[in-house]
Amino acid sequence: MKNEVSAAGNLIQIISKSRQNALKKVNEELIQMYWKVGEYLSTESMKTSFGDAYIDTVAEEIQNAFPGIKGFNRRGLYRMKKFYETYADDEFVATLLSQISWSNHLAIISKGKTPEERHFYITLCIKEDYSARELSRQIDSGYYERYMLSKEKLLPEPIKGLKENPFLDSYVMEFLDLPSNFKEPDLRKGLIRNMKDFILEVGRDFMFIDEEFKVQVGGEDYKIDLLFFHRGLQCLVAFELKVGKFMPEYT
Prior knowledge:
There is one protein chain. By secondary structure, the chain is mostly helical. It is 55% helix and 11% strand. It contains 10 helices and 3 strands. Strands 1-2-3 form a 3-stranded antiparallel sheet, with helices on one face.
């Protein structure tokens, strides 16, 4: 019976990995197609004097050639055109475009204000394997701005060895849905209930270990509100939760 379970488990992993690879290949082909369509539309639009009518005509002809095809209406074609024009002269993203989904590209193009911000979110998407919902949440919470503000802070030597600072100056916890006059236990319980969203906010290198973790210092017993392990730093990270203004004795 144990061998049967093991064999099934191995097969499931093989099937799952193959499906993931197939989806990646499909995504690569789609992104390349959208790029080529966008390039064609951008080039041809400069040749014609029909303006918006040109895109309308193209959308209609595509629908006639491929009845029921999705994504190639007027709005979709404009998105492909903008996709190409946004990155046409951007060498930084040339090899990265096919590594994230079309939905993520649309979010980055529509919400990214500068090339640097777009580069940041593309790289972050690849590193963290964000879904469209997760990416939109990060952009809407101003993750790029918060990251840049924290980037140049003086850091201990172990953290300087990482490619990026794993700690931000501020975190956005809009998902907690806490009562108006919440206390520290409410905050802790809210974070535990929404641990997936909390990890998304603080970074996926953080692995949750326990809450109210007991430690003894100088013969006194203490509790760490939330204890994590950070894979990059290879050390434990303690989260001390306080409601209100920071006080020096909290350290």
